[in-house]
Specification:
- The protein is mainly α and 223 residues long.
- The protein has a single domain, classed as CDP-alcohol phosphotransferase transmembrane (TM) domain (Four Helix Bundle (Hemerythrin (Met), subunit A), Up-down Bundle).
- Helices cover 79% and strands 0% of the residues.
- It has nine helices and no strands.
- α4 packs antiparallel against α5.
- InterPro entries: CDP-alcohol_PTase-I, CDP-OH_P_trans, CDP-OH_PTrfase_TM_dom, CDP_ALCOHOL_P_TRANSF_CS, Phosphatidylglycerol_P_synth.
- Keywords: Lipid biosynthesis, Lipid metabolism, Membrane, Phospholipid biosynthesis, Phospholipid metabolism, Transferase, Transmembrane, Transmembrane helix.
């Protein structure tokens, strides 16, 4: 009974945190995030939260390696991962609230996302819990687009941001989150769901990458 109750508790927590992420993603009003702003703005800047996202990676790593066969340890790693993912939303809100949308922050934010997702995907592949092919495609896409972005900046080509990049990041976060938990929870086959979501996020990533490449060539003055 105790095991069943703890299993149910983890399931309820999983559901509430997932719905919390979805709700926070839809809510762009600073006024409606007053609690988060009041809590963080006294102690941290947006860049602190971005750096924290990277600093949490070793703790997630340690939990996944040490507790690879322990549900509660994996679940604890997942909780840290969820918090790290939420900082991706919070740092943007905090930067706007504090008027500190710096060039450093604009550089660090996408890099922190790539370190968080990319490093965990590599670990999941090593643990046999994520398809190597999809991980190679996702990481290769990031290298190619980052290289193209550098070329565009050097040539003075301006490419407007699209929603595809943010959708790509969110879908990857959900995929990695389910793969971290791995074991079935409240009847949800987390590993299988994570693999399906990773396929979907790979398709979104490749599509958004294609759109970026197309936008680059359309923006060239001598195309």
């Amino acid at each position: 009974v105790t095991s069943q109750n703890s299993f149910t508790l983890k399931g309820k927590l999983l559901f509430s945190l997932i719905t919390g992420i979805i709700h926070s993603g839809r809510n762009n009003s600073i006024q409606e995030n007053y609690f988060m702003i009041a809590f963080f703005s006294k102690w941290l800047t947006a860049n602190h939260l971005t750096t924290l996202r990277v600093a949490l990676v070793p703790f997630i790593y340690a939990g996944m390696v040490v507790g690879k066969d322990e549900h509660w340890i994996l679940f604890s790693s997942w909780l840290i991962f969820v918090f790290a993912c939420l900082t991706d939303y919070w740092d943007g809100v905090l930067a706007r609230h504090q008027g500190q949308a710096t060039k450093l922050g604009k550089l660090l934010d996408p890099v922190a996302d790539k370190i968080l997702i990319g490093s965990l995907l590599v670990l999941l592949v090593a643990m046999g819990r994520a398809p190597a092919l999809l991980t190679v495609l996702l990481i290769s896409r990031e290298f190619i687009i980052n290289g193209l972005r550098s070329i565009a900046a050097a040539e003075g080509v301006v490419i407007s941001a699209s929603s595809g990049g943010k959708i790509k990041t969110i879908s990857q976060m959900f995929a990695v989150g389910f793969l971290i938990i791995h074991y079935p929870t409240i009847g949800i086959p987390c590993h299988e769901v994570g693999v399906i979501l990773l396929w979907i996020s790979t398709a979104i990533s490749l599509w958004s990458g294609y759109n970026y490449v197309a936008a680059y060539y359309l923006a060239l003055p001598d195309k």
